[in-house]
Amino acid sequence: MNGVTLYKLGGSLFDLPDLGDRLTEVFREEASRVLVLAGGGPFAEAIRVRQQTDGLTDGVAHRFAIAAMGQSARWFVGSRTDTVLVPDTNSAENAWGETLSSIAVIDPEPLLNQVRFRPDGVLTEDWRTTSDAIATWIAHRWPVKRLVFLKSVGCDRNELSLRDIERAVAETRLDPITLDILRLFLPNRPTVDWRNLRS
Predict the structure, then answer these.
(1) Rounded to whole angstroms, what are the CA distances from 184 to 17, 105, 108, 121, 168?
(2) What pLDDT score does 7 carry?
(3) Rounded-to-integer distance, Cα 67 and Cα 177, Å
């Protein structure tokens, strides 16, 4: 799938009252077809809390967290008229075929259920595999030409090097598995950009 940009929408941004307007500005600048993966946000945070009180294993809690990312995707689609919820590449292609202005929003649960933590031995079924790592893995598997992390922290940067990403991991702004995936898929990794949408 040439000419696709995957935006990973950080769940920490969900409380922005003008999030829709900010995203509209971001997407307006985009010449490629747009794919969005939303983080779990408050839905996933609620699961973290319940795991402590209910004694869920990491594997069970993580499956719930992925389902929570699906709820974030549905919330995002429900808040915009230019979005389509998609479970796979064919559905995204169909959405873009109807109108290139459509934004395809990934429901990650059916996509990951097809290849559940089996494929490359990279994704773990626990909290080490964050939505950033899942976005990076999807960026390779689809594939996409550009991966953009939309965050609440950091400075806007284009074409991050592996050293930049290592620094982000050291500062706990990205998880180590995201870095592992990018290293594993060299030299065919997508361009990686960083946007602080809260600034």
Answers:
(1) 38, 26, 21, 11, 18
(2) 97
(3) 20
Angle, CA of 32, 107 and 71, to the nearest 5°: 120
> Per-domain residue ranges for the chain?
4-196
At 123 the pLDDT is 82
Residue whose pair of structure tokens reads 């995957």 in the numeric block: 6
Domain 4-196 has CATH 3.40.50.2300: no
pTM of the model: 0.92
Q: If you write DSSP's letter for every residue of 140-199 in order, what string do you get?
A: HHTT-SEEEEEESSS--BSS--HHHHHHHHHTTSS-HHHHHHHHHTTTSPPEEEEEES--
Give bridge partners of residue 135 from the DSSP assignment. Answer: none
User: Please, is 65 exposed, middle or buried when counting C-beta atoms within 10 Å of its C-beta (0-12, 13-18, 19+)?
Assistant: buried
| Contact (CB, 8 A) for 192 and 160 | yes
Number of Cβ within a 10 Å radius of residue 123: 22
> Which two structure tokens, joined as six digits, stand for 194?
């960083």
Across all residues in the chain, what is the average pLDDT? 88
pLDDT in tens, 130-160: 999 999 999 988 879 999 999 999 888 999 9
Answer yes or no: are the C-beta atoms of 112 and 134 closer than 8 Å.
yes
Within a 10 A sphere around the Cβ of 135, how many other Cβ atoms?
28
Give the HSE-up count for residue 45: Cα atoms under 13 Å, Cβ half-sphere: 7
